[in-house]
Amino acid sequence: LRPYQQAGVRWLHLLTRMGLGACLADDMGLGKTIQVLALLLTVPRTRPSLLVAPASLLANWQQETDRFTPSLRYVIAHPSAMAQDELRALDAERLAGIDLVITSYGTLMRQPNLLAMHWQLAVADEAQALKNPSAKQTKAVKQLQAEARIALTGTPVENSLSDLWSIFDFTHPGLLGSQKAFAGLTKSMAHYGSLRTLVNPYILRRLKSDKRIIDDLPDKTEVTAWCTLSPAQTALY
Length: 237
Prior knowledge:
This protein is an alpha/beta fold and 237 residues long. The protein has helices at residues 3-17, 32-42, 58-68, 84-89, 105-110, 112-116, 136-141, 161-171, 179-188, 193-199, 231-236, and strands at 22-24, 49-53, 74-77, 100-104, 118-124, 145-152, 203-204.
């Protein structure tokens, strides 16, 4: 791990051992996946942990787990990896020797057995998927029972501050008050210093543009390439 990733794992370890949630909001490409995998190796494993991610990222999680933490025992709880009857049969007894269960947001909504279990850690990857509090997948994820909850997102505030409220309603229910109270409070704020102070202990964000994070990362090079459509493509478009 790079030094900033080691610091991230220590930060996650401290909060989760205290039973507190965490929002790891590092910029894309800084290794949120590997920090969570390292965390899973360091915490005393009393029961399986659950990781929920968009279906398109399940293969990536599988590859990263195989590559960096081959000793971690995991299952992919998704119709692409196991039969429906196996999915429905997953319970604490069948997962007794498993460290990590990886599933998708869509699968979690359709598997009440996963929602009913008590997990060591519940991790939501691409947690901006929870920005709509009334969405079915958001409600399902917030039902998860765990000793601590972790949100992973490179964009903790994507459209408005309500995105941040919904993520923290998963990691720290009640910390920011009700949705209605939070919306009224932020509208009346002249600046957000007090809000930053409140969430600061529970959110960690590092940027690729910060040379103190990765001093050997070269400056980004942008090249504009104009690609015109062919007549057939233009007609289809």
